[in-house]
Amino acid sequence: MPWVWRPHPDVWLLVAVLAGGYAYALRRVGPRHVAPEERPASRSQVVAYSIGVFTIWVGADWPVHELAERYLYSVHMIQHILFSLVAPPLLLLGTPAWMARELLRSCGLLRSVCRLARPLPALVVFNTVLALTHWPALVDFTLRVHPAHFAAHAALFGSALLMWCPVVGPLPELRISPPGQMLYLFAQSIVPTVPASFLVFGQHPLYHFYEHVPRLWGLSAGEDQRIAGLIMKLGEGALLWSIVTVLFFRWCAQCDAADRQARHLARLDAELNDIARSAP
């Protein structure tokens, strides 16, 4: 039963590595990369990273793990959203630039990431992985073979990190302009419509694994699949459009501030010119 607690030491180990590695880097490595009076990471960065790690723990541990892998594909879809649209941007927001460069250089991945994290390659990579992780044959296989399931989630998470780099990545050279970010996320909100449509309007369950699991809350396999499709389309769309809305108002505020500053400088320049002309 899903409500019987089941320990997941592998998840706890992953969370401990993510949290402990971050704390170690801030304490031991960070001071070498910032000025003596600066903090290796701001408070908001630490909070964002902590929530990102907590999101991974919620999505991968009991009871979400049991519900997703043994009972309901709709909960599996919530897992995918947590691993692709919630945890990755939070972890990136919480990662200082010096930490990202140090980590990528030590792994020999800096050049590859800088190429793949550009908008077009990142969109292609992420949506290719997204399509594959919803392919019925692959889903059925990964649900029966735990290492394959872990690999599929790792691929989805890794490609999501690339996808979010142009918007919230720690490396400023990879971020695009606010209008570009809004267009980029708009494009990303359209792509999931295709697999979501197959899930919502499919006449028969696409994933045979979920036809042979115990049913919860009176949901049939077809109803569970349709709910998953609606979560994919409406949930992902709402999340992405909420971020687009925040980016839009932030961009407008920046434009207004820049415009006010420009008018102020122009007024000062005019006053100085008046003073210069009136001087004997």
Structure description:
The structure is a single chain. The mean pLDDT is about 90. Helix 2 (about 45-60) packs antiparallel against helix 4, helix 10 (about 180-190) packs antiparallel against helix 12 and helix 11 (about 195-200) packs antiparallel against helix 12. This protein is globular. The protein is built from 12 helices and no strands. It has helices at about 10-30, 45-60, 65-70, 75-95, 95-105, 110-115, 120-130, 135-145, 145-170, 180-190, 195-200, 220-280. Helices cover about 75% and strands about 0% of the residues. By secondary structure, the chain is mainly alpha-helical.
Relevant terms:
about 280 residues; mainly alpha; about 75% helix; globular
Helix content: over 70%
SSE class: mainly alpha
Number of helices: 12
Global geometry:
globular
Summarize this structure briefly:
This protein has helices spanning 9-29, 43-60, 64-70, 73-93, 97-107, 110-116, 119-132, 136-144, 146-168, 178-190, 193-201, 221-278.
Detail the topology: elements first, then pairings.
Layout: H1 9-29, H2 43-60, H3 64-70, H4 73-93, H5 97-107, H6 110-116, H7 119-132, H8 136-144, H9 146-168, H10 178-190, H11 193-201, H12 221-278
